[in-house]
Amino acid sequence: MYDLSPDLAVTAHGPVRLIELNRPDQLNSASEGMHTALAEVWDRVAADHGARAVVLTGRGRAFSAGGNFEVMRRVQRDEAFRHQNVVEARRIITGMVRCPVPVVAAVNGPAVGLGCSLALLSDIVVMADSAHIADPHLQVGLVAGDGGALVLPLIVGLARAKELLFLGRKVKAQDAEHLGLVNSVVPREQVVDEAMKLAQRLAEMPAQALRDTKRAVNLHLERAMSAGLEAALTAERESMHSPEHVALVDKLLAKD
């Protein structure tokens, strides 16, 4: 619909915009094109006067496996591309937080790394009972600056956020619901339908009141962004070409 990238499909379903991460054969890991499109799409939604709600999901069996090693390798070696990657990460975060319409994540499968951030930055999360969520930035030598460090403390508190970020633990659907990471858990085959039904309900709400309520609630996230986002992104950018990160990626690639 918005003609951004083949790796990010956007379709209109009445007042609902369905945004699908579209690299199913790669578990929707983020290509360069997908990452750039994710940075742009929220401005397009904001300017779309017919949009009243968004459903964000992944095609195939994963929500998103996060980053991919080809992009990581280029980020390690190319300073200009590294800067672009961080600029886009900032736009993804601020775009989702400030998107005027509600975003419902349909987590149909694993939501890892960037996928975890996309789910946590959504307003309401419906998760498949077979899915899991995890932020393993640290396990590949990266700072979790693009969402996890910002959002997790607000959802689960500092102690639990540190556990999840430091250890990169996989959180199964039922545990994610218990922790407040997601709003509901449904059978996998129902997750997108349930999210679409919920988005349709939201689309029928008084539009201005819903937008202003989202803005008011997200003042907590805005304060967190003003206090820590730039420091987190700067730290992540530096970790993107650290010897630790390079060595860990090389080790993982050697296993393939």
TrEMBL record:
A Pfam family: ECH_1
Q: Which domain of life is it from?
A: Bacteria
Membrane-spanning parts: none
State a single Gene Ontology molecular function: isomerase activity
Q: Which family does it belong to?
A: Belongs to the enoyl-CoA hydratase/isomerase family.
Identification of the protein by name:
Enoyl-CoA hydratase/isomerase family protein
Which organism is this protein's natural source? Answer: Actinomadura physcomitrii
